[in-house]
Specification:
- It is a single chain.
- Helix content is 45%, strand content 22%.
- The chain has 10 helices and 12 strands.
- A 5-stranded mixed β-sheet has the order 4-3-5-12-6, with helices on both faces.
- Helix 1 crosses helix 2 and helix 2 crosses helix 3.
- The longest helix has 31 residues.
- It holds the Pfam family LysR_substrate.
């Protein structure tokens, strides 16, 4: 990048590769030229940036500090370039989104497609992470915003929008329970049950339901993968506990039925659109954020409509 010195370009590549020779091959610059630049700065700093071994180069503590600073400078400069493009009215930019695994479904892809149609100059990176890693990515500036489930209250996170998601029993469309409008957990005792296991967040409310109801589940299997859980229920291996968001695509296709649980021990999951409050978003990220806020409103309204349709059918 033109804004960075030759030394920083050489230094960061050597740090990544751990070798002058490999950095030379990537940069198409002689290894001796790269080494001279690094030695000159080491002399100015009066401390080594690399430990030199026969097997390669290893960063010192000073090198680690400089390498992390260089990554931050490059990331900040990328944001500046995006903002300058926004000022020119190009409406171009790249947006980094961190999400939980449950959100990466067909219905979310359709939202992103609509955003791309409205703003064709905007591209995005979509990364699936756990809640804690999303929070870390937001505070570190590695993501513009994140979609999290039940985020912990924190000064480092600001919730821009949220949707409450009911928990219920999910069955195949042919299951005898599929006609019910609502259900108590105790009514699940006779039926083969697929247990959602940790680290799925469904594991905690399931334990609370078992403890409060006192029933013994007819467990036929367990999985810590939400995709496998959906497949097992769809194939009638058993019924299970999920939130509405987990099956929205299958619900729309008529493959799975969602029966809301009415046990008072249950609290809904909260899907949240979060940002780091100290972060200044680019125009591209702000536009996409606005569209996703509309998406959150749609989630709650569609879930409510699904409940009404269920009641009408019943």
């Amino acid at each position: 990048m033109f804004a960075f010195s030759r030394f920083l370009i050489y230094f960061t590549e050597v740090a990544r590769q751990g070798s002058l020779r490999k950095a030379s091959e990537v940069l198409h610059v002689s290894a001796s030229s790269i080494d001279r630049q690094i030695l000159r700065v080491e002399e100015q700093l009066d401390m080594p940036l690399f430990e030199r071994h026969p097997s390669g180069l290893c960063m010192t503590a000073a090198g680690e500090i400089l390498f992390n600073a260089a990554k931050n400078w490059q990331r900040d400069f990328g944001r500046v370039c995006t903002q300058l493009e926004d000022l020119r009215g190009l409406r171009h930019g790249h947006v980094h989104i961190a999400t939980i695994d449950a959100i990466n479904r067909g219905f979310f892809s359709s939202i992103l497609q609509r955003i791309r149609e409205d703003y064709p100059g905007i591209s995005f990176t979509l990364t699936t992470m756990s809640n804690i890693h999303i929070a870390n990515a937001l505070t570190a500036g590695d993501a513009d915003f994140g979609i999290m489930l039940n985020p912990q209250s924190s000064r480092e996170l600001l919730v821009k929008s949220f949707a409450d998601l009911r928990l219920g029993i999910v069955v195949s469309r042919h299951h005898p329970l599929a006609a019910l409008e609502s259900i108590r957990f105790s009514h699940c005792e006779p039926w083969p049950f697929i247990v959602p296991a940790a680290p799925l967040m469904l594991a905690d409310p399931l334990e609370a339901l078992i403890n409060s109801s006192g029933i013994r589940l007819k467990e036929v299997g367990r999985t810590n993968n939400i995709h496998m859980l959906r497949s097992l229920v769809r194939d009638d291996v058993g019924i299970s506990l999920m939130c509405w968001l987990d099956i929205v695509d299958e619900y729309r296709r008529g493959e799975l039925k969602f029966i809301p649980l009415i046990d008072t021990v249950l609290k809904p999951f909260t899907l949240s659109l979060c940002v780091a409050p100290q972060r200044q978003l680019s125009v591209a990220a702000s536009m996409m954020l606005g569209q996703l806020e509309l998406f959150f409103a749609m989630i709650e309204s569609e879930e409510a409509l699904a409940g009404k349709e269920k009641k009408h059918i019943g």
